[in-house]
Amino acid sequence: MPELPEVETIARSLxxxxxxxxxxxxxxxxxxxxxxxxxxxxARALTGARLAAIRREGKQIVIDLAHGRSxxxxxxxxxxxxxxxxxxxxxxxxxxxxxxxLIAHLGSGREIRFVDPRRFxxxxxxxxxxxxxxYEPLQVDLDTFAALFRKRKLPIKAALLNQKxxxxxxxxxxxxxxxxxxxxxxxxxxxxxxxxxxxxxxxxRKVLKEAIAAGGTSISDYVDAEGSxxxxxxxxxxxxxxxxxCMVCRSPIKRIIVGGRSTHYCPQCQR
DNA sequence: ATACCGACCTGTCAGC
DNA sequence: TGCTGACAGGTCGGTA
Length: 271
Description:
- A hairpin with a 4-residue loop joins strand 6 (100-106) and strand 7 (111-115).
- This protein starts with a helix and ends in a 6-residue tail after the last strand.
- A four-stranded antiparallel sheet has the order 1-6-7-5, covered by helices on one side. A four-stranded antiparallel sheet has the order 2-3-4-8, with helices on one face.
- The protein is of the alpha+beta class.
- The mean pLDDT is 95.
- Helix 1 (4-18) packs parallel to helix 6 and helix 5 packs across helix 6 (194-213).
- The protein is built from six helices and ten strands; from the N terminus they run H-E-H-E-E-E-E-E-E-E-H-H-H-H-E-E.
- It binds a DNA duplex through residues 1-3, 6, 33, 59, 80-85, 99, 116-122, 152-154, 158, 161, 163, 170-173, 216-217, 219-222, 240, 259-262.
């Protein structure tokens, strides 16, 4: 489900509702795959902690945890939503959905719930880390962006999906950015010209910003922390439009597999 | 080092 | 009404 715009939307809506709140107690479900840190450690870190700040890094939600009177941030709660994960702010009386794996009971009386049917999501805690290692698509400069692809033989789409290069682009926005830039997904990354890289950089930034403004893309599961859907699915130009006419030239949109993922493009507009 | 592929999960939908 | 197969926002580890 969630790529950069969706995770950004969730982080903002969580921050608006529960930043400054305190975790009174926590319930953890029994599916071991969910926990990337030992569950006892997660429970210990969360219980009694104040949620000092909530933000997005790549595709994960990062919550600063403050303990005790010093209010010093020593640990962070990390949630990666995988394909179908949701972080929801709920009232205690609301029904507990199937596939709920964590409930944090807050001092305000509300709850944060982690729901994830496919269980590709991961929950962990880590010691406070101020610096990230990889590049954010909306912060990286053009020269650094261009250098990421130099000499690489893999398809440009696979490179955009590689989180070690750029953090946050997923299947939807890779396809949409490549369409807007007029570049075929299978083009070897290292063969893009300077002009094409510049176009891709601009297209990527534009589509991500527009998607954040729209509250993300809701196809089946995705909702923000308040349960609201995004609207960017109405603005998609190629993703999941196989066979439909291109909005620019009316050629049918093609679907192929690149990097093991469904890939949608216009054979006329993308070269 | 780089690139590719199957595995990890549940749910939904189309076709028979 | 089942049943089967394809597909779905992501990442990881093994292999060549």
